[in-house]
Amino acid sequence: MNKILPFVLTVILVGICACSYSQSTQEALLGKWQLVNSSGGITGKGFPIKKNAIIEFTADCQYLSFEQDSLEQKSTYYLTKSLSKYRKKDSLNILLIGYGDFKKYELYITKTRLILREPYADGFTRVYIRELKKK
Asked: Is 28:106 a contact under the CB 8 Å cutoff?
């Protein structure tokens, strides 16, 4: 019993830390983000940025994509973790959008910047900035 208790407590603490980390990532993701840059693809140049290309993540796990204030896509998103191929000990935040044929992105986020990277050699990288609330 004395040997099992520390193991059980360690498992519980790791579980709590993992849950609180993913919640803070989701909370940081919530809101509207404006596309400002893209790179990658076969040429490495990315794709042209359309005016008012906005994505939104809601608390009920809805992903909304707008172009020119018109809703282009509505889907469900999921957050998960994956081991990094290059940094063996680190894990990456993974964003999955949609059902079945979902889109998969590596997720990097700060207070004002969101970077979504497609996890393959000629995939695109999209850079977003947080859209400020209008008064």
From this structure: no
At 62, is the secondary structure helix, strand, or coil?
A: strand
Query: What is the overall mean pLDDT for the chain?
Result: 80
Residue 59 per-residue DSSP state: T
Q: What phi and psi values does residue 125 have, to the nearest 5 degrees?
A: -115, 130
| Tally of CB atoms within 10 A around 63 | 20
Q: Where are the beta strands (DSSP E) in 19-123?
A: 31-40, 53-57, 62-67, 70-83, 91-97, 103-109, 113-117
Residue environment code for 35-56, b if the CB has 16+ CB neighbours within 10 A, otherwise e: beebebeeeeeeeeeeeebbbb
d(CA 15, CA 11): 6
pTM exceeds 0.70, yes or no: yes
